[in-house]
Structures are given as structure tokens and as C-alpha cells.
Amino acid sequence: MAPQGEIPLAANILGTIGTVFWCVQLVPQIIRNYRTKSTEGLPAAMMFLWSVSGVPFGVYAIAQQFNIPLIVQPQCFCALCGVSWAQCIVYGRKWRAWTATLVLLALFAVFAGVQAGLVFAIRPAYARGIEWPVLLIGILAFLLLIGGYFPIPFELLKRRGRVVGIDFIFLGIDWCGAFFSLMSLVAQTEFDSLFGTLYALCCVIEMTMVISHLIWRVRTKGIRKRANEQGMSFDESEEGKEWQAKGWDVGASLSIMFSRSRLGGEEEPTEVMEEETVQTSSKNMVPNAVV
Description:
This protein is mainly alpha-helical. The protein has helices at about 10-25, 25-35, 45-65, 70-90, 95-125, 130-145, 150-160, 170-185, 195-220, 220-230, 240-245, 250-260, 270-285. The protein has two domains: about 10-220, no CATH class; about 220-285, no CATH class. The chain contains 13 helices and no strands. α1 runs parallel beside α4, α3 (about 45-65) packs parallel to α5 (about 95-125) and α6 (about 130-145) packs parallel to α9 (about 195-220). It is globular, with a radius of gyration of 22 Å. Pfam families: PQ-loop (PF04193).
């Protein structure tokens, strides 16, 4: 695919709107993490992969000569995801704040160097009509960003469809950013199918998360109502704990399976396995910020 030529005004306007949304999308999530001092339910791997994806994302946007807002967008996205990832390792893995900050700054320096190097490396070849390096960079960005969503289904399975730890304001802003960026590509002279597909998938996945949580609310309406009448939250009521503990913790199941494999295939008592699963599920129940 050849780089973009003249950028229509509509593409610039739509791209600017999308970039504004994506420049602030993670701010509500970062504020929530800071206030609650918890990132339970927010996968650190998702934030890290999203941050890394900003590098090939930025290279591809520059090489394709997208409109300026879409070139600025991956830089802001990379920075905000990096901050959120640092919060995950501070609040979730109990790293010291200054250690996480130094690691994050070092990563940003590496990201900047790699992005600049790749841009200067592939531009001459792309100008000569050699397109595969740019296409490869675009595919890498696509896989990294979509791969960031991979832990989400497991989180939903563990909590029976409930979205925990992810701020819904963030999801709404992120969805708008992806939607307007998609519309910006549509308005360009030539539609970029790779990143168009990326933005469309982001919209679909995030709508699926919201729908999953709404279904959880419908299914637990009676339990939440009875808990409220008793002056308790869903997570404080015994009925709520029992209902939520029936979720499938894939990580705990795999851990038990590997433990049994290391012990030479010896069977563990069923009661012990059930107790471990219930305890793990109960420990992972944390009230969401917006429900």
C-alpha cells in the first residue's frame, strides 16, 4: 500500500477528535488506580503490550504519512499505557514506586530509540516501492495491541462475566477514540485496511466487555438487592460470595494441573482442590469502581 498523499480536511478533523480521546483515555483509569491503590482485575500484561505496541504503531503511522493527529496518537497511547503498567507493578506486585519509575523511563528511552531507528531504516526502502517492511511493522503493531486484550476473557470467566478493576469511563473514551480514528481512515483518500480492522476490533471487544458486565448485573440483580436490604455490598454478602466463587479461574486450574504433574500424576483429594479454587476465587473478588 502506498503512503497517503493529500489528506482531506474531514480526515484531519476526525483524526484530531480520535486523538483527543486517545490522549486522555487512560486518565480515568490511572486516577482510579491511584485512589484505590489497587489494580486487581486490570491485567498488567495488557497495559505492557499496549505500551509496546505504540512503537510499531508510531512507525507505521509515520511511514504511511497518516494525518498528524494519527501520528501523535500512538505516542500518547504508549505513554499512558506505560504509566498504567507501572501502577500495576507497584500496587499489584508491590514494587517500590521509584524502582517502577526508573524502569518505565528506561523503557520509554528504548521505545523512542527503536521507533526513530525503524523510521529511518524503512523510509528509504519504502520510497523505492519496497512495502513488506512497513507491512510487517503494521502487522506487529496489530498483533501487540489485539494481544493485549487476551487476558480479558480469562478475567471475565473468573468473575462470571463481571468486569472488575477496569474503569468504564476509560472504556467509553477508548471506544470513542477507536471509532473516530476508524472514521478518519475512512475519510482519507485511501483506506488503510490493516489499521481500519484494528480500530474496528477495539470497538467490538470493548462493547463486548460492557455487555458482559450488564449481563452480570441482570443475573445478580436479586442477590444485590437482598444484600442492599441487609446493608451490605454484593461482595460482603455470603450469597454474593458463593455465587461469585463459582467462576472458572483458569490460572488456578492450570496451577493445580501443573502441580499434580510435578508430583508424578498423583491425585489430590477432591475436597482440597475445591477448597483451593474457592479460596482463590474469593480472594480475587474486588468491588468495581463503577457498577
